[in-house]
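Reopening this ticket.

The earlier resolution said the output was attached, but the attachment link was broken on my side. Pasting everything inline this time so it's all in one place.
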Amino acid sequence: MTNDTMRTDTTRTTARRTGRAITVAAGAAGALLLWVVNDPWAGNDLAVRRGDTTQHIGPVAVVVAALIAGLAAWGLLALLERTVGHPVRTFRIIALVVLVLSLAGPLGSGVGISSRLALLAMHLTVGAALILGLPGRRNCR
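Inline output:
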């Protein structure tokens, strides 16, 4: 392998990692923006039921949950790229199933219709960012 080839491979890897990190951050930022619009600005108290108690959903919880989901999705995609023939298609199928299953959380435990809708929107925002953005344009096959 020549130096030019190694440099090109390194540049591609760095660009892919940077793009994926931006995608994960964008998903978290989108969820945080929805929280800001719904909770402090609109005055909707975003809360979920935990047994007999009600827990308020704050900005830290929103960002941490989105980042954990994003990093897990990134790890899954990296694993699939090394092990399966069509990693993007496989990733998107798995991610869509996980997204649909995750919607049960806000639907089942959200307190009030406005809270449920806002939490659903956050799930869908993060899911869409990760499903569409993580693979990147080059890998769509």
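Reporter confirms the inline version is readable. The mean pLDDT is 89. Strands lie at 47-50, 53-56.
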